[in-house]
Amino acid sequence: MTLFPWDYFWIGFNKFNFPDLFDPLWVGSGILLLILIALYVTRTRALHRHRPYLDMWEWIFWSGLITYFLVIVGSTFQFDFAVILVILASGLGTMAWARFRRYPPLFEAYEHQLARQRYLARARSSRPEATIRTKNVRAKQRKRR
């Protein structure tokens, strides 16, 4: 360290200035980007009928894609280290906010809705007359025609 700690915020993020952080950060961003794409594809295929879960994965995917791609671009074009830290903090913060603050109440409401639908479907199919038409109903339908 040849500079004061706060002076490192305003120098370019490259291998010469940050030898311990540069390679792990841009390689880790690339790996996490690939993992994020794979998770997004598998989870959206598995949850294609559940809209709140798809919406959450959209939030996580786009905020992660932007964050990790900007870290790679910032490493390539030697952005200031402060810019890299702002990109990481805002992107990871957005991902955490979407996963742990925005969507859990929506998931809870959706689970209640699914439970109500399962209960009503079970109640309808538990009575035999709900699934079997009687002769009187058929006769009334013929008379209407």
Care to describe what's here?
The protein is rod-shaped. Helix 2 packs antiparallel against helix 3. It is built from 4 helices and no strands. It has one domain (18-144). By secondary structure, it is mainly alpha-helical. The chain has helices spanning 22-46, 51-76, 81-126, 135-144. The relative contact order is 0.10.
Topology:
Layout: H1 22-46, H2 51-76, H3 81-126, H4 135-144
Output the keywords.
145 residues; mainly alpha; 4 helices; rod-shaped
Overall 3D form: rod-shaped
Task: Enumerate how many helices there are, as a single number.
Answer: 4
The oligomeric state is single chain
- Major sheet, described briefly? none
Q: Return Rg in Å.
A: 27 Å
Strand share of the residues? under 5%
**Helix content bin:** over 70%
Taking the alpha carbons of the first and last residues, their distance comes to: 93 Å
Report the structural category: mainly alpha
Give the number of DSSP strands. 0
Average pLDDT for all residues: 90
Number of domains: 1
Low-confidence stretches: none
The H/E string reads HHHH
Briefly, what is this?
Helix content is 74%, strand content 0%. With 145 residues, the chain is an all-alpha fold.
